[in-house]
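Shipment paperwork, digital attachment
Item: protein structure file
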Amino acid sequence: MATLCQAIFEHLCSQFQSCTHVIWLCDQILKSGEGVLSEEYEMYWFEGDDLFSAQRPRGLPIGNLTSQFWANVYLNDLDQHVKRELKCKAYIRYVDDFLLFSDNKQELSQWRDQIIRKLAGLRLTLHEECAQIFPTSTGIPFLGFRVYPEHRLLKTRKAIRFRRKLKHLMGNYSNGLLDFSKLDQIIQGWIHYAGYADTWGLRRSVLKGVVL
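Attachment content:
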C-alpha cells in the first residue's frame, strides 16, 4: 500500500490541533521518510488532484516504530469500514497487511472493489496484484510467511534473501569489518523470526556452513 506522508500529517493535525510541539515533532519524523521507495512507484492521481499534487511528499521512515503507530491511526477508518459497513466477521490487519475471510467468493470480490474505493478516499492505493482471492487450503501469504490451516512456512524469497545477506556478513566478519556481537545479533534475530514457522530443516540448512 502506497502511503502519503502528507496525508497522515494532515490527519494528525486535525486530531491534535492544540499540541503544536507534538505536531512539529511528527512533521520532522515524517519528513525523514519522504521519497522512501519513490523509484518503485509511479505517480498516482486521485480524484480532485491538480498539477501541484505531484509535489506532495510520500513515504514513511522505514524502521521507525512511529510508522506502525501512524498506520494504525490512519487506517482506523478502513477497520471501521470493513467491520461496520462490509460486515466482515473475520478480519485481520497488521499495519498495512490485512486479510478478509468469507465462504463466499463473490462477496470477497465485492469487498475488494469497495476497499479499493475506500482507500482512494484516504489517498491510498492497494497492491492489486497481491490482493487476490484464494482458498485458505493453499496457504495465505501474511507478514513474510505462508500460513496453512495446520502449519506455517517461511516465504522462499525470505530464505533466499537471508542466505545472500549471511554470505555478505560472513565476508565482512572474516575481513574484520564486522564484530562478532553484531553478527551474532543479526543471526539470532533471523533464527527467532524464522522460528515462528516450521523451519527447523531450513534453519539447519542455512546455518550449516557458518563457522565462527
